Amino acid sequence: MACYAASEKGGDVFFPIPARSVRRSLRLPMFVLVFTLLLNSNCVSSYSSGYWDFTCNNSTDMERGKLGPQNPGVCSGKATHLPVCECGFKMLDSCFLNKNKMLEIEKGANDFNIPIIRSNRKLVASIDGGLHKPSCLVFNSAWKARQLEHEPNKKLNYPSPAGIQRPKSDEDIAFMSILELGQLLKVNLITSVELTGIFLKRLKRYGPVLESVVTITEELAYKQAKESDQLLAEGKYLGPLHGIPYGLKDIIAVPNYTTTWGSTSFKVQVLDIEAWVYKRLKSAGAVLVAKLVTGSLAYDDIWFGGRTRNPWNIEEYSTGSSAGPASCTSAGLVPFAIGSETSGSITYPASRCGVTALRPTFGAVGRTGVMSIAESLDKLGPFCRNSVDCVVVLDAIRGKDPDDVSSRDISFGDPFSVDITKLTVGYLEDAEMEVVHVLQSKGVNMVPFNLSYTVDSVQGILNFTMDVEMLAHFDKWQRSNLDDEYEAQDQWPIELRRARAISAVDYFQAQRARGILIQQVRESFSVDAFIGNATDWEKVCVGNLVGFPVVVVPTGFKKISDAPSNDTRRRTTITTGIYAPPDRDHVALALAIAYQSVTNHHKQRPPIDDLGPNDPIPESPKSL
């Protein structure tokens, strides 16, 4: 068994309160490394008989912090007389064991557990990131047993923008919706090459200001744009994403470009993999213009190049690991972007940056070629100008991924054909009442609602699930002490060290508790959808553990606190969430479309670095 530095230093993740972590569900072999802390601790008990020696054979290097990939600190297996570490059993809440049983466990761990642990690790954990060898334990978020894999995909009835003309300024073009840009392309008012050039220019101008762009894929973008224009010239139209530029969160692999995962440890990594979601977008004719910032190893907004900023208030950070997709979409650097969520990394940055975004039903979008935190929690979803655009993007990327066992063909009805007057929609106490009133005025039956369940350890279940599964995917990284170079020492490093003390039994008990939560939420979900705060931590945890979708919609703005000037253009965004049961994404989207059809909050443009009189930005980053 390997040894680990025990220093206290302090992931697809944002945590708004001190309680952190929230991911993962049904994975890990049952031989979790339960004895790591037991067998490599400095605490001493009162034992005096013969014990097994689990001390490090290179402890000097370990103490000096010199362990690395070539010197991972393998423990010796020789038998000497050392006391059993009772404090290790205490960390596992196993103090009920008497001393003789502890000795028996130590010997059994050495003779039986450790060889299996090492064999499994060699088999599946030689490469970090969870890109290969997924668990055979699969979480299915569906509430209905009916299988939908063989149902034909129905063509959606997209609205056609009428009277669309090419704006005179590139700025106005940059803030057009996907369908509006598509209309310009179809009637030859602009080419994909021209459109790509507009967004590349904005990425170079504002990307460094917002610290939101990792790699501009200029050569690839122009190649794909030229191909899109050629197909249109031949009369071949691939759909509403044909020729539309976009960005990918930099945990999504694209050949010939770095996929850095936002981390110093992997910033030169090039993966010869085409992620499933990239393949789907490429086949739809979309044009990749940039790899956008992910927080380091998909945790919050800090990455190896800085910390991503909110375009509505540049002195504020974007929050959430899908920081780049949210910030860039908000600022008009891309028409849309693909982000991911394990525990808030879509909902939080979308809310902070004031963009419309969808966290879809778990399993709706395949994740092959995407860095994994927690296979039973990870989801990919779009950041867009509006909810109609979210429909367009989800329709293009949804469906069964043959290499992602958690993915499936969700039941996705046509949001444009939903009769919202036949829906009963609940609203929580923290719902934005403007949304309630607007939907009510459009004929929706709005009723007070409360999502009821008795499980009181929701946030802890999320922590256990996410951290254990994340550690399984980054076991080698931690064993090589690469966590010492992590960008924010109070984030993943501390959480993943703590995860070493979560036993297989307790991980599995957390999943059983998760099952109770899912059952109780299902039984209490007596409405077609409900409106509530999109960033309430408890709801973020529940939504991700259960796997139901939410659409984040901007609902207004307020003045920033401590404004340097009454004339400042900086604002704090206000948003809400529209939640629906699993596989009912189209219902949540239909309600969002109805709300946005009579409001314009989603059409407002952030100031970025044009803050107004008497509100200067000191030493703004230079453009690329």
UniProtKB/TrEMBL annotation:
This is Amidase domain-containing protein. InterPro entries: Amidase (IPR000120), Amidase_dom (IPR023631), AS_sf (IPR036928). Residues 600-624 are annotated as: Disordered. Residues 615-624 have a biased composition (Pro residues). Gene3D superfamilies: Amidase signature (AS) domain. PANTHER family: AMIDASE FAMILY PROTEIN (PTHR11895:SF73), TRANSAMIDASE (PTHR11895). It comes from the Eukaryota. It holds the Pfam family Amidase. Residues 194-525 form the Amidase domain. It comes from Solanum stoloniferum.
